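Hi V.,

You were right to ask for the full record rather than a summary. Here it is.
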Amino acid sequence: MVSGKYTVQETGPRIDAFLKKIIAGAGFELSYSIESGSGAFENFETPDILVKFTGPDVDLLLENKAELLLALEQLTTEALGMSPDEHSLVCFDANDHRLMRIEELRLSALTAAEKVRKTRVPFLFSPMNSRERRILHLALRDQAGIRSESVGQAPHRQVAVVPEDMKELPAPTFVRTARPGPPAKSRPPRLARRNDQRGNERGDRRRNDRRGPGRRRS
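Predicted structure:
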């Protein structure tokens, strides 16, 4: 059920104005329709607004796992000032990509559930955003003998599928680690000694020059 917070009548013109600037600036050949999201992805996603793209450059939006399509969606939700937990209320789609992705996640969830039931070995999905993790949880909520939990920290949170009676969750396989800083620059020991020796020799010459030609160090 849609939330009703964002409507085609009120929010649609703002989305339209933003997309026109982006598409014109990038030189894309794209058209789009802004529709109500009611019933678009029943039982899995209930966006208030669905934006559907068509046109010669649709394939560009769907390359690399729809990277550009999702980037446009993210930029639009930020332009609208939506909070992160509201981003799922506006959905971008092209060539039914979103519907196929939901079905792919649903089948993957059922396969993982069956594997965990047979082996009693936890299964971890690759890191996903909150929207796709939610689809996995929904697909698994009625599966007997197993349960699903999210583990790890954003942006590397993963869905773990475990036997229903297993208390300890598996550790995430993607752990955020601090990036090591650049190695400290150091001179090789032999070169360092040679430079020090040259520095001492230059210092001795300067002191002798100040004493004059008739005065030598004892």
